[in-house]
Amino acid sequence: MDLNIYYNNLILVPAVSFVVTVFLKWLFIKLKTGKLDIAWALWSWWMPSVHSSVVVSLATAVAIKHWIHHDLFAISMAFTVIIIYDAINVRFEAWQHAVAINESLWEKKFKESLGHLPSEAFAWSILGIIIAVALFFI
Question: 47 and 126 in contact (C-beta within 8 Å)?
Fold first, then answer.
């Protein structure tokens, strides 16, 4: 199977996904706030979910290159499930703790926006799939 540069160097697929998703995040923040702050785009909260896009693009690329019966696909899917679970559930719990601590201190000392909604993780997982498939055809 003669694959392109992205699939001969599989790490490039999630790297491209990371760059595209961070750029889109920066663009959305710019449109919403009017600020040109790249640091906001690198934070691990708000739309889009860079976590979801990157790990899903990797799992999709492994599925395309090695098919779903390969051990690498199983590993990448396990990795994907753990990362997305963390982005949604574990960070939700941390958010609740931050809110409770801030309320008990009567001031905001801890960042409360930590994770993603399930809809955000799902939407940007689709972007990861699109990027992986698009790079296959380049």
Answer: no
Instruction: Map out the domains of the chain as residue ranges.
Output: 5-136
- Is the pTM above the cut of 0.70? yes
User: Where does the pLDDT of residue 4 fall: very low under 50, low under 70, confident under 90, or very high at 90 and above?
Assistant: confident
Total count of residues recorded for the chain: 138
What is the rounded distance in angstroms from the CA atom of residue 59 to the CA atom of residue 21?
16
Residues in contact with 130: Cβ distance below 8 Å, sequence separation at least 6, in sequence order: none
Neighbours of 4 (CB within 10 A): 12
Tens of pLDDT, residue by residue over 38-73, are: 776 666 555 557 888 999 999 999 999 999 999 999
Question: Do 117 and 46 contact (CB within 8 A), yes or no?
Answer: no
| 133 contacts 6 by C-beta, under 8 angstroms | no
